């Protein structure tokens, strides 16, 4: 937590107040389509698989959130990855002068696919998915861990409440479950997040296209050991917990409202 505060303070002192919100427009451009794909897909796959396992193989039902989370997150990640790449590069961008205009989402993506000597356009567009393997290697375990914890915690809270779900209890149960699940999943998958970031900000195109997550993790371990593997863990946990809590709470209360509206 101390390192998170120190990092924020250094960013503010060196590059001004706007540095703390660098990449926000890319984050917003990423959040809407990602959640729009991720959450409905998770609900769909969970409901279908739970219906199947309950009837055919009840012993597999507890693993349904894990599998549904993996499938839904993979679809959302692959679909929206270029914007994720732009967001990471924008946040990592460092202007040499205070009056240097920071690149936007579109400019960042154009720079990624800028023609390279000796390469075809097809190869250039592949650069938009640079580091996708590392992103999936982080997001798939994160989603599996997160939903496994979240579903169990949420059902336990509702069972403890022992009342008909209402908007307030839905928000409270989902926020609490999401906060816990997001924080735990973020802490466990932090090394994979460090590897993903390093691959996304790699400037050498040939190296970026050939790097693997395994090689990147080995480099991180060689350069910084365990401390390097969990670099930024405090900031990641501090962001992931509230983020998951807010998204899941909002999604579930909107579902509840729409369900009641259609019943009336």
Keywords:
264 residues; mainly alpha; 11 helices; 0% strand; globular; transport
Describe the 3D structure.
- Solcar repeats lie at residues 60-156, 169-257.
- Its main location: mitochondrion.
- Belongs to the mitochondrial carrier (TC 2.A.29) family.
- Keywords: Membrane, Mitochondrion, Mitochondrion inner membrane, Repeat, Transmembrane, Transmembrane helix, Transport.
- The structure is a single chain.
- With 264 residues, this protein is mainly α.
- 78% of the residues lie in helices and 0% in strands.
- It has 11 helices and no strands.
- Helix 6 packs antiparallel against helix 7 and helix 7 runs antiparallel to helix 11 (233-263).
- The N and C termini lie far apart (48 Å).
Compact summary:
With about 260 residues, the chain is mainly α. Helix content is about 80%, strand content about 0%.
């Amino acid at each position: 937590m101390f390192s998170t505060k120190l990092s924020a303070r250094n960013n503010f002192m060196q590059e001004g107040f706007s540095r703390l919100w660098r990449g926000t427009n890319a984050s917003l451009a990423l959040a809407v389509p990602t959640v729009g794909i991720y959450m409905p897909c998770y609900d769909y796959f969970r409901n279908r698989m739970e219906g199947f396992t309950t009837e055919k193989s009840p012993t597999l039902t507890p693993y349904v959130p894990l599998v549904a989370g993996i499938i839904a997150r993979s679809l959302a990640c692959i679909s929206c990855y270029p914007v994720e790449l732009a967001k990471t590069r924008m946040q990592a961008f460092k202007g040499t002068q205070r009056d240097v205009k920071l690149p936007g989402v579109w400019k960042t993506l154009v720079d990624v696919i800028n023609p390279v000597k000796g390469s075809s356009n097809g190869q250039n567009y592949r650069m938009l998915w640079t580091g996708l393997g590392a992103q999936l290697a982080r997001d798939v375990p994160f989603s599996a861990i997160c939903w496994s914890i979240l579903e169990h915690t949420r059902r336990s809270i509702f069972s403890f409440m022992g009342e008909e779900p209402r908007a307030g209890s839905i928000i409270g149960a989902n926020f609490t479950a999401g906060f816990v699940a997001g924080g735990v999943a973020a802490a466990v998958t932090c090394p994979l997040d460090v590897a993903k970031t390093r691959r996304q900000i790699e400037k050498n195109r040939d190296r970026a296209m050939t790097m693997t997550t395994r090689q990147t993790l080995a480099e991180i371990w060689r350069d910084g050991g365990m401390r390097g593997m969990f670099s930024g863990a405090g900031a990641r946990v501090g962001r992931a917990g509230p983020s998951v809590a807010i998204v899941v709470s909002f999604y579930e209360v909107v579902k509840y409202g729409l369900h009641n509206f259609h019943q009336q």
